C-alpha cells in the first residue's frame, strides 16, 4: 500500500508516494539518490546512516518514512549547502578523523548532534552527576565525547582522532 510523504532533505522538498514499509534510509538512497547516509548494518547498530531528523540525530534505517511525513532531514552532504565545510567536517579533516570514510557521514552528523546536545546541558551515561548543570567543557570531555559517540562504529578504528575532532569543532580544549 502506498502513502504520500513530504520530506525536506538537505533543503530540498520532496513529495512522493512510498510503500508504507519503506524506511527513511531506503527512501533517501534508492528514491532520492542521496547516498550520504550509508547502509551499514540496516539494524540500528552501527550508526553509519545517522542523520539529523528534525534537528536531532537519528538512525533512518529504523524509521519508517510514513512516520515522518513533513520532517526535515539533514545529511552530512547538507551540513554545508553553500560549499564551505561545516565546522565538524573541517575538524574531521584537520584531525584526520577518518580512514576508509564509510562511517564518516554518520560520524559527522552524530558529532553535530552531540555538540548540540552538550550545548543544551544534556547528560550522558558517562556523566557523574546527571542532575548537575553541565557546561559544554564538562559535557565534552574525552570520556563524555567517547560515550556520546559510542553509537557510531568505525571498522578502521579512527576513534583516537574522532574524539579530538568533535572537541575541536565544539571549541573545547582537549
TrEMBL record:
Organism: Modestobacter muralis
The entry's keywords: 2Fe-2S, Iron, Iron-sulfur, Metal-binding, Oxidoreductase
MF annotations from Gene Ontology: 2 iron, 2 sulfur cluster binding; metal ion binding; oxidoreductase activity, acting on the aldehyde or oxo group of donors
Protein name: 2Fe-2S iron-sulfur cluster binding domain-containing protein
Segments forming domain 2Fe-2S ferredoxin-type: 3-79
Pfam families (alphabetical): Fer2, Fer2_2
Lineage: Bacteria, Bacillati, Actinomycetota, Actinomycetes, Geodermatophilales
Pathway(s) served: Alkaloid degradation; nicotine degradation
Entry keyword annotation includes Metal-binding: yes
Keyword hit for Disulfide bond: no
